[in-house]
Amino acid sequence: MTDLVPRPGPAPAVPAWRAVARCVAVSAILLARGRVHLSRSHVGRVVRFADGTTARVYRETTADGDVAEPCVLVVAFRLRGVRGPAGHALFRAESMLNTPLFVGFPGFVSKLWLADDQRGTYRGLYEWDGAARAEAYARSLWRVLALVSVRGSIDYRVVPGLTRDAALAVPGALAGGRPPGAGAWWVVA
């Protein structure tokens, strides 16, 4: 799809870990100032994807700020070693501790945390201010996810010019107006 920002792999290790460290420091400031919020407007919603899977929103995180260049980022991964309902419930509870690993990245607007689907894949459906910023985050996040994910399961898509709410409201919007195809795990159907 020509309207998608190309997806290189992970950022080089040293710059990625520096970016994560900066993010944690900025996150602490944002959290202390009350600029990060847990919303409930989408929690419990079941999202259907073009690949035939569904996932339930189990958490929603937002940050204060204006958006000049909206884009949607969808990240997917499968956890290594997490099995059964109890293991997944523990991960979902623990994942709250991961908030400082993303809210302090430049351009963060919101994240819907999606529980594991029928294939054991977790997704994050984000709104970001700026496609380049979203990609920089995704490539740095890759380094963190690689520590806990099944090899080869990490993927992401950046779709510029679209808000998260538009992606949820208009089936296929993340496919840029074209039929998404059966493997389009990132396209809300």
Description of the structure:
The protein is an alpha+beta fold. It has one domain: Alpha-Beta Plaits. It is 28% helix and 25% strand. Strands 1, 2, 3, 4, 5, 6 and 7 form a 7-stranded antiparallel sheet that branches. Strand 2 and strand 3 form a beta hairpin. 35% of the residues are buried.
Share of residues in strands: 25-35%
Oligomer: single chain
- Specify the overall morphology: globular
Radius of gyration: 15 Å
Q: N-to-C terminal Cα separation, in Å?
A: 17 Å
Strand segment count? 7
Largest β sheet strand count, sense and barrel closure: 7 strands, antiparallel
| Count of DSSP H/I helices | 4
Summarize the structure.
With 189 residues, the chain is α+β, with helices and mostly antiparallel strands. It contains four helices and seven strands, in the order H-E-E-E-E-H-E-E-H-E-H.
Sequence-ordered SSE layout with sheet pairings:
Blueprint: H1 13-32, E1 36-39, E2 46-48, E3 54-63, E4 70-78, H2 84-94, E5 108-114, E6 121-129, H3 131-146, E7 155-160, H4 164-169
Antiparallel strand pairs: 1-3, 2-3, 3-5, 4-6, 4-7, 5-6
Helix pairs in contact: 1-3
Give keywords.
single chain; 189 residues; alpha+beta; Alpha-Beta Plaits; 25% strand
